[in-house]
């Protein structure tokens, strides 16, 4: 019985570690890409302003 419990705990710890690593990677990538996203949004808004106002 103890061996089954130990195996289950090890499996749960492995899954928890994988989820933690995935969360850290997603958080890091979101912070790295945030300035790029803001730049793209500013460029799109600036570019679309020409279409809506009709000015060059």
Topology:
Blueprint: H1 2-53
Q: How many strand elements? A: 0
Radius of gyration, CA atoms, in whole angstroms: 24 Å
- State which percent range the strand residues make up: under 5%
Tell me the major beta sheet: none
Distance from N terminus to C terminus (CA atoms, Å) equals 77 Å
Question: Tell me, what's the shape?
Answer: rod-shaped
Order of helices and strands: H
The low-confidence runs, each spanning 5 or more residues with pLDDT under 50, are: none
How would you describe the oligomerization state of the chains in this entry? single chain
Helix share of residues?
A: over 70%
How many DSSP H or I helices?
Answer: 1
Q: What do the pLDDT scores average to? A: 83
> Which structural class do you get from the secondary structure elements?
mainly alpha
Description:
- The protein has a domain at 19-51.
- The model has no long low-confidence stretch (mean pLDDT 83).
- The longest helix is centred in the middle third of the chain and has 52 residues, at 2-53.
- The chain is built from 1 helix and no strands.
- It starts with a helix and ends with a helix.
- It has 56 residues and is mainly alpha-helical.
Short description:
The protein is an all-alpha fold. The protein has one helix at 2-53.
Q: How would you describe this structure in keywords?
A:
single chain; 56 residues; mainly alpha; 1 helix; 93% helix; rod-shaped
